[in-house]
Amino acid sequence: MKDMHVVLLGDSIFDNGAYTSGGPDVITQLRHLLPTGWRATLGAVDGATTTDLDPQLAAVPEDARHRVLSVGGNDALAHVDLLDRRSRSSAQVLGELADAAEAFEKRYRKEDRPRHPQAHRQPRAVRRRSTRLRRLPGDVNR
User: Fold this and answer.
1) Cα separation of 82 and 51, whole Å?
2) Which residue has the higher pLDDT, 25 or 76?
3) Contact between 49 and 14 (Cβ < 8 Å)
4) Average pLDDT score over the chain
5) Which of 1, 71, 92, 132 has the most CB atoms at less than 10 Å from its CB?
6) What is residue 130's predicted lDDT score, i.e. its pLDDT?
7) Are 138 and 95 in contact (CB under 8 A)?
């Protein structure tokens, strides 16, 4: 089998050494589990958001055959105030959540990212289904 190279990109889901209390982080566990001849590189950065992906993608080694991306948690944390905000209706809150989700999706699917040989292709999970929130008919803010 040809040597394989896996690169982990995104946020602290993968760059989690600061949260393991001395236990093995994700990259260490992955390296332990990979077959002989496979390599793993940590490109993820704790605290990263979708707007921080460009440098990570630009740094992906040319020989990387597999790229795994986990991002979005820190983007969601930027909107935690929606949970405490006063509103006139559920439709208003859901509309604001839909706006936040739409903005996230646009940043995630950004077209002008650095062109790694396969960077222009969306991950399979994104191509297969969209989790876009729909606006409700009763939303008074539209």
Assistant:
1) 21
2) 25
3) no
4) 81
5) 71
6) 40
7) no
- The amino acid at residue 103 is A
Cβ(47)–Cβ(12) below 8 Å? yes
Which pTM was predicted? Answer: 0.70
> What is the spatial distance between Cα 131 and Cα 133, in angstroms, rounded to a whole number?
6
CA gap 83, 85 in Å, rounded? 6
Residues 79-134: tens digit of each pLDDT: 888 888 888 888 988 898 899 889 888 887 874 455 545 444 444 444 333 444 44
Distances in Å between the alpha carbon of 76 and those of 80, 88, 103, 128, 141? Answer: 7, 22, 11, 22, 21
Alpha helices in the chain (DSSP H): 26-33, 53-58, 73-77, 90-108, 124-128
Tokens 């979708």 sit on residue: 50
Distance CA 93, CA 89 (A): 7
Give me the mean pLDDT over the 58-74 stretch.
94
Tokens 């990979």, residue?
34
At 109, the amino acid letter reads R
Task: Tell me the CA distances in angstroms from 25 to 59, 91, 128, one per residue in order.
Answer: 21, 41, 30
- Output the CA–CA distances (angstroms, integers) from residue 36 to 1, 14, 32, in the order listed: 10, 21, 10
